[in-house]
Amino acid sequence: MLRQTIALAVAFGLVTQDAAFASQNPTLDARRVQIAWEELVALVVDQRISTTLPDGTRLEGDALAVRPEALVVDVQKTSNKKLHPKGQTEIPRSAVSEVRVIRVRGIAMRIILGILGGFGGAYASVGLAFVTDSAAVLLPAILLGIPLAAIGGYYAGKLLDTRVTHLLIKNPGQPGGFEEDGHEIQ
Q1: Does residue 18 contact residue 11 with C-beta atoms inside 8 Å?
Q2: 130-148 pLDDT per residue, tens
Q3: CB neighbours of 87 closer than 8 A, spacing ≥ 6?
Q4: Rounded to two decimals, what is the model's pTM?
């Protein structure tokens, strides 16, 4: 009876931890803002940004400048190195409909959740060894459970430390653009 109670407590603790991490999804917290091209310069220059081009290529890097005809980016990550290699590039205005501004606030949550994940892994490992009543299970559970739970906690903290703002570019008079009232132009 005692073993079943402890196993239930361990399972409940792990489910609660997973639910807490899942509820902190940054995509649910992301803000969406409609702006004109001229307003883009004040919001993205010297910021980490990400955008998806019409050909499906996703670019991420530092915004260097916003010109009337193009967005200048120092590309550090690209999903298509052949068409859009890393380095400084100009993205034509017509190819930019959305820009995601990525802000990393620090590392506090990564550290805190990494430590808590390690403790959770230790708790689960000991609980598993106790429930199975086997010392042979304890060593592998500790060697795998603690580091994996700590790594999971670190990445959950990384999600919490990162804020993304979606900037939708208004292009009045162009197909796919937005009118002043926010309705899409066909």
Answers
A1: no
A2: 888 877 888 888 888 899 9
A3: 74, 75
A4: 0.62
